[in-house]
Amino acid sequence: MITTLSGDTSRLLATVDFVKEQDTAALLPLLFPGLDGPELRSLVEHCRFSHAALLVFPSDETELRAMLADCGLVADLPGRPSVVVRERLAVRHRRPAAELDVGILRPDVAGADGEHRTVEVFALTVPPGSGLEEIAACERERQHEAHVAFEVVAPDPLVLRGLASTFARYGAVPDGGGYNPHENGTVFYFGASAEAKAGYRRLELYVPGDHRDLLADHLDGHRARQPAETLLRLLTGAWTTQALATFAQLRVPDAMDGERAVGVEELARTVGARPGKLATLLRYLAMLGAVEEGHDGFRLTEPGALLRDGVPGSMRALALMYGGPFYESFAALGHTVRTGEVAFEHVFGENHFDHFARDPELAELFDQSMAAGSAMFDPLPTHPALTAAAEAPAGGTVVDIAGGNGELLGRVLAAHPRLHGVLLERPHAVEAARLRLEEAGHGTRCAFVTGDFADVPAGGDVYVLSRVLHDWDDERCREILRHCARAMPEHADLLVVERVLPSDGSVSLATAWDVHMMCNVGGRERQAGHYGRLFADAGLALVGRAPLPLDGNVLHVRKARPTSAG
């Protein structure tokens, strides 16, 4: 251990000396040979040299404390957990992140120019016999995590894009990064050009705050150069689904707090789990952003809070559905692709509507999961067709076809007190919707019809088909739309809520849901032109389209006007 300690201490001392000697204006041209004039002045204006970083490998906290003292550094121990470096090490060495105890320390160092700087010390604890010695030897040799860092003075998106563009122009390439919730900061890593003379091959832009939108573009550039890493991340998607589903199933979010950290032992007692195993799950969820890890335990984040039961916007039911029946059926996706048969039916022996209807608990879970995407509905009550119906002298009637548990219809009625509602659904769903709408105070303004699509009530002013057509093939869609057209008065509007496939190949949730519908329901998502043809076949016409959250769309449909001959 003496040799190891001396080696890490020597490396750390060299890093301290570098931080003391350098300043922003002198360091940037070393990293970007040829940078001068206005571009150099612009970079100096918008970012400042803040620290140099090193990864060291103490066997425990006592050894780390001695190493810092030998280098004249003072820091509070233990340090904050490192999300970014721990994940990079896990991917690089193909080890579970939970096995890598990496902390961050930032002891102060005074620069020669009087500026306040730090040495960023990443410490991977390597206890004797832990099996991590090979990682330590490799990292000491290759110095993957050693870098110099610049802090952005004004974290404006335009400034960030400009800095990244300048770095790229002088040979820097994206090399990862991440958001650290423990300190609310975003890091952008770059590989320096081959001509750099600073002795460091990597550099970092540190930006206070959450800038994951810009980080996503940056990481895309990195992953394009790391195909194996990209594929490995994709292949672990099933782990993510099960981790979130287990988190929800055990009701861990309900036992956590968004303001203070809760210890693993306390959480384990509350939810009936083994503390060590729960800690491993929570560390993985911290990497996903569902929780945050601190000195005293784990704290729930805003995304993680959506997995609580009974809270507004809860997505717990969706997690249980995607981690349960739909997870099982996706294992037979290959069967669907080979044969054309629906995977869900192949696995469970019947279609998912019949399967869920026979099990009251599963039926309720399915209806709750449908309501979990309710953010898609937020703007819908302000649609001009609904506003016009509400402003009619006698008010208006909205017919929600296959309206589930009444989530959408309740929002419409709450937004427009002069509207009345009719909900058409299967027997068990009608009772759930009746209870929900009565509890919301809309019971006297709503009628309930038990039946199928052939039973669409006539005489409404606005009809709604929300996430219905994607369940069915084209012929069944035409049949449903013809039932709607027969029931609709000439003045009536039909609002169809669906995810619409992009026609230009751009990224959309609709593309993912297209696979989901094929695998689990036998339906599909469609492009707007495809929907237009289905409407026309039923004597209807698409007259408008507006975007909704979660990549949704509302398609505005009316009865087609007869064309005059000659």
From TrEMBL:
GO molecular function ontology, one term from the record: methyltransferase activity
Chain ranges of the O-methyltransferase C-terminal domain: 330-540
UniProt entry tagged with the keyword Methyltransferase: yes
Domain O-methyltransferase dimerisation: 233-303
Cross-referenced Pfam families: Dimerisation (PF08100), Methyltransf_2 (PF00891)
GO biological process: methylation
InterPro entries assigned to the protein according to its UniProt record, in alphabetical order: COMT-like, COMT_C, COMT_dimerisation, SAM-dependent_MTases_sf, WH-like_DNA-bd_sf, WH_DNA-bd_sf
Alphabetic keyword roster: Methyltransferase, S-adenosyl-L-methionine, Transferase
PROSITE patterns per UniProt: SAM_OMT_II (PS51683)
Entry protein name: Methyltransferase
